[in-house]
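Task card 7
Instruction: Convert sequence to structure tokens.
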Amino acid sequence: MSKSIYVGNLPWSTTEDDLASLFSEYGDVISVKLISDRETGRSKGFGFIEMGDDVAKTAIEALDNQEFGGRTLRVNEARPQTPR
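Output:
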């Protein structure tokens, strides 16, 4: 089973490879998705990481409120999107 992790307050220059590398220190990363603006293509400063249940909690606890690229990360378990 896997968990989706929300990662916010990312530097604009962050790449999916950067995030995968950061989170892989805590276990296998299944997927990485950075969210970007549809019109400009510029990063919105947040993304999602998918990891196994067993390592996701460790990664969340270790990386929440840690500095990355000069910004303090916000890391927590992703909540399902609410219908509009």
